[in-house]
Amino acid sequence: MSWGDLPQVEPALVRSYRLVNSKYPPIALFDDVADPDEFEALHELQARTNPRLMNEVGRLEFIASSEIPFGIQGCSYAVAPFTHINPAGSRFSDGSFGILYLADTITTALAEVQHHQQLYWSGVEGLAFDRILLRGLSCKFDQTGLLDMTGLPLDHPVYDPHDYTAARVAGAQLKQASTPGFKYHSVRHPDSHCWALLTPRPVRSIVQSTHFEMIWDGRNISSVNKIASV
Questions:
Q1: How many angstroms separate the CA atoms of 165 and 179, rounded?
Q2: Where does the source fall among the domains of life (predicted)?
Q3: Comparing C-alpha atoms, which of 83, 22, 75 is closest to residue 57?
């Protein structure tokens, strides 16, 4: 099928949720400037004096400055997935481009993260205990122009729980077509949905909400707890 033929979602300002590892702080440079020109000037200045800047900001060549929503609250959270790309990829990316994944509820976000964290810990030989602290984020974005993948049946190959081949083909085609993103069924939390933003442009704000911890007991994630303070 031609993925560009998918219907569009109804235009709306949407609230969504995301979890990130709390060991990664916001990137101050993105939040301290209001426009691309100011960013370029400050980035050039700091690059001369801060050798850690490249690690903090990430690979700026992966995103055009016109894609960055400068001036919004939480700009760094919106941009980070596009400058710090997991080379192993994700459901809709082979690792050559970034995606901002968002969920309809914090419960859906937890289910998605728990699945992938379980896979990661299961692959660490001899790991008897571990703990990850996650920062909850509340995101508002404009879904105008996003495509709707929720009309596809749950047994469609893009929703395969283990094989991402079909999903990555879809993601690559939509990225190449400059599609801003799409809505799809959550694979890890039934009767829920997520969004995959292929650019941070639609984001209007991202703010920190609640922290959570996941505990690994050597075999499984034994508990997921809401943290009052960190």
A1: 19
A2: Bacteria
A3: 83
The full DSSP string for 200-211 is STTEEEEEEEEE
Structure tokens at 131: 């703990």
Tokens 């896979």 -> residue: 119
Q: Whole-angstrom Cα distance, residue 25 to residue 18?
A: 15
**Nearest-angstrom CA–CA distance, 230 and 79:** 24
Which of helix, strand or coil describes residue 147? Answer: strand
How does DSSP assign 21-56, residue by residue? ETTS---HHHHS-SSHHHHHHHHHHHHHH-TTHHHH
**Domain range for residue 55?**
3-227
What are the tokens at 157?
Answer: 């190959």
Residue given tokens 């075999």 in the structure block = 219
The rounded Cα 91 to chain-centroid distance in angstroms is 11
pTM (2 d.p.): 0.92
Q: Which helix (H) or strand (E) holds 80?
A: helix 75-83
For strand 130-142 and strand 13-21, is the pairing parallel, antiparallel, or unpaired?
antiparallel
Residue 45 has pLDDT above 60, yes or no: no
Contact status, residue 117 vs residue 57, Cβ threshold 8 Å: no
CA dihedral 186, 105, 206, 134 (to 10 degrees): -90
The total domain count for the chain is 1
Q: What is the pLDDT of residues 210-228, one digit of tens each?
A: 999 999 999 999 999 999 7
Strands (E), 70-159: 100-103, 130-142, 147-148
